[in-house]
Amino acid sequence: MARVVVDVMLKPEILDPQGQAVQRALPRLGFDGISDVRQGKRFELEVDGPVDDAALARIHELAETFLANTVIENFTVKVEEAAELAAGAEK
User: Fold this and answer.
1) C-alpha to C-alpha distance for 3 and 51, rounded to whole angstroms
2) Would you state the pLDDT for residue 49?
3) Long-range contacts of 34-43 (CB under 8 A, 24+ apart)
4) How confident is the model at residue 82 (pLDDT cuts 50, 70, 90)?
5) How far is CA 40 from CA 16, 51, 73, in A?
6) Which pLDDT value is given to residue 72?
7) What is the DSSP letter of 66?
8) 78 bridge partner residues
9) Rounded CA gap, 2 and 77, in Å?
10) C-alpha to C-alpha distance for 73 and 18, rounded to whole angstroms
11) In angstroms, rounded to a whole number, what is the distance separating the alpha carbons of residues 57 and 89?
């Protein structure tokens, strides 16, 4: 079993009111020096079997048609390495 991560973010030209609200709140909470915040979504997909080119193409299609609104959002697809998965399980 493998994990594939799809990160979805608003395109840079799209306003991000949630990110702006977080950015404005940070100094009040004592977190200075943060000049911008963008909020996004992260999807972790557990995949049965190997993540080959065909599986990645299918996940890319899933992200493009279901997970992201590609008019206003960009997305990236990456496979997490076995070492990263093991480290996450220990936490």
Assistant:
1) 9
2) 87
3) 38/9, 38/10, 39/10, 40/7, 40/8, 40/9, 40/10, 41/7, 41/8, 41/9, 41/67, 42/5, 42/6, 42/7, 42/8, 43/5, 43/6, 43/7, 43/8, 43/67
4) low
5) 9, 24, 9
6) 98
7) I
8) 5
9) 13
10) 15
11) 27
Q: Where are the beta strands (DSSP E) in 1-91?
A: 2-10, 40-47, 73-79
> For position 3, what pLDDT does the model report?
95
pLDDT greater than 80 at residue 10: yes
For residue 85, report the phi and psi dihedrals to the nearest 5 degrees: -65, -45
Which residue has tokens 């840079």?
12
Q: Is the pLDDT of residue 26 over 90?
A: yes
Of how many residues is the chain composed?
A: 91
